[in-house]
Amino acid sequence: MTRFFNTFTRRKEEFVPLQKGFVRLYSCGPTTYFYAHIGNYRAYCFADLLRRYLEWKGFKTLHVMNITDVDDKTIRESSKAGKSLKDYTEVYNQAFFADLHTLNIVPAHYYPKATEHVDDMLTIIQELIAHNKAYKSEDGSVYFKIDSFKDYGKLSGLKMADLQAGASGRVKKDEYSKESASDFVLWKAYSPEDGDVFWETRVGKGRPGWHIECSAMSTRYLGYSFDIHTGGVDLIFPHHENEIAQSEGASKKKFVNYWLHNEHLLVDGKKMSKSLGNFYTLRDLLSKGFDPLAVRYALIATHYRSQLNFTFDVVHAAEKTLSGLQDFLSHLKDDAVVAGKEKDGQIAAALARQLEKTKADFTAALDDDLDVANALASVFELQHAVNKALDEKAVSRVLATKIAAFFWNDFNSIFGVLKKQAAEKVPVEVQKLVEEREAARKSKDFKKSDALREQIKALGYAVDDTEKGARVKKA
Ligand code: AMP
Ligand code: ZN
Q1: Full-prediction pTM beyond 0.70?
Q2: Backbone phi and psi for residue 155, each to the nearest 5 degrees, phi listed first
Q3: Is any ligand 1 atom within 6 A of the Cβ of residue 240?
Q4: What was the pLDDT predicted at 169?
Q5: Could you say which of 33, 81, 425, 440 would form a disulfide bridge with 449 (CB–CB 3.0 to 4.6 Å)?
Q6: Does domain 3-262 have CATH number 3.40.50.620?
Q7: Closest Cα to atom 11 of ligand 1
């Protein structure tokens, strides 16, 4: 049974999708006014882990991640750079897709852009006006009337009574704090700072507010009601609170059943963020020589609801863990034996039992709100036991295949951190020398066999003599 912690109810709940076997999932995506930083990628790697887990459990998924390519920040930065909004954001849109690929993130099915869904936003805005949940202000902007929506504040735990006392009228900015919660903007009437960023529409000349973008794009691709919505905890208020008010205010249907929020990536105890300037982009880390899969591992190996303090040491440790796993899988492929000896039969039987237990523990941990720490602990325990048994030549090929299948098909389907191990292609000339050397060894001509080893080495290959014969690999 799958259980997720639902921010809306503040408890772990059994996960039951609206449609059996099919999960509709929406993740708030990047605002493309700069390269996403690795704090942002913690949010996207979390959504990826969730998606991979659901598919591994046998659910079909429909995953949508929006691209915010118009808002206060994109307009401000493109105008500073003297570029059109489209030209400016396109650079970062493309960089984002490249980074997703580098981080081995399974692509969402749709990446809608806000600028291409203004009409969908207007439809919701007009519905809200018709339902008396939104109004036009003097300057032509349209605001959501929060006291018209009785559930306003439920996701973030705001109390409407406190709110009304402190309400400060209206906010036109996209971002604001709980303290200034009040009627928020759906449509911003044109102002000169917007330059050439405006739409002439049925509600007037202007541009959308940020919050309405996600309501419109999620509804367009997933319908009025869907299963899971993800994002970082900073989005709970006001962004997700406002999404609920807009969507439910317009459709009169429950918007989202499960709200899953990831905690922040921190630097020295503070949220990694563009505004604090304490951030690293993925590019920054790659230029320092870090392996992108280790960055991915570092971001997902801590439970998504725990804060994670970022240091280079965390990524170094991840690199070590992953190279240990890769070596282990090579060892497993190369050093399994045809059949174990009599006493080793017992080791093999114990190992077969441990494999079954690992599978059960791994599944139970992930089913429990993606408890990666316990899932990984069971994986490493198995790795340790198998390594020991391999050294004792007690792992049969049949068992090795089953163990490898667990690592590739179960562990890696979800974690996505292993590199495929292509069978190494040894050049024909090297292979010939290896065979000559084998023959020399058989006839005990060690002088010749040593000379041949040197020749092989000169071609960049090393040869190991094992019980099963010579093994060649890149030096
Ligand atoms: P933004 O582009 O600022 O809207 O952020 C995109 C996503 O990254 C959102 O889901 C944010 O909640 C998330 N996010 C931003 N900063 C961090 C951080 N330091 N750690 C984890 N997630 C973050
Ligand atoms: Zn959003």
Answers
A1: yes
A2: -65, -45
A3: no
A4: 79
A5: 440
A6: yes
A7: 232
